[in-house]
Amino acid sequence: MQKYSTFEHLAGRFNPDVQSRLLGNADVAYLSDTPTIGLLAEVYGWDNAVFWLKMQIASLDRYNGSTKECDLAVIGEVALLFARRYARVKLTEFMLFIARFKLGIYGKFYGVFDPISLGEAFKLFLRHREKEIAEIERTRNEPGSTWFIPPRRIYLAELVSGSETPGSRRR
User: Fold this and answer.
1) Alpha-carbon distance 38 to 89, whole Å?
2) Per residue in 3-36, pLDDT tens?
3) How far apart are CA 31 and CA 93, in angstroms?
4) Nearest to 70 by CA among 61, 59, 78
5) Distance of CA 165 to CAs 76, 79, 155, Å?
6) How far, in Å, are 26, 46, 165 from residue 84 at the CA level?
7) Which of 40, 45, 118, 139 is 20 to 30 A from 86, comparing alpha carbons?
8) What are the angstrom distances between the C-alpha of 111 and each of 16, 68, 102, 117, 128?
């Protein structure tokens, strides 16, 4: 966490706009040197960890485009529950989940924020995560694998800053 001098710096680097960049980079979301929700809370306080989660979750409401705004108190409570229950989840993993949820990969979003649907979808994401990590590691270890993974810290910094260019990553 030394590379993020303040919570504002960290929140700026891991803002909701980064979610879409992780869609084609699950290996980065899962295996990069990224802080967890718990580490964020330990270093910057639980209030900031909850605030960061609220930013990510609230992006669902903005994405939906509903004229009826969701209850911010409900989002706050959901964010607190996620922070406490899933403290070991990396920030990039949660962002990947939100991006996939927006695409309907983990169920339908019916226009009104539903915290129970979000929780159920996240449990499904966690099951998929374990399978994806196993597949990434298996693929990396295959003899003759052409899998190219740039150094994690450099690549994650490029991904989060948005300087990644199409074709800059080879497999």
Assistant:
1) 8
2) 888 999 999 999 999 999 999 889 999 999 999 9
3) 9
4) 61
5) 35, 32, 11
6) 24, 9, 36
7) 139
8) 19, 9, 11, 12, 25
Distance CA 116, CA 98 (A): 14
Round to whole Å and give the CA distance between 14 and 160: 7
pLDDT per position as a tens digit, 63-101? 766 555 667 788 899 999 999 999 999 999 999 999 999
pLDDT higher than threshold 80 for residue 102: yes
pTM of the model: 0.80
Longest dimension (CA), the chain: 54
Please tell me whether residue 100 adopts helix, strand or coil conformation: helix
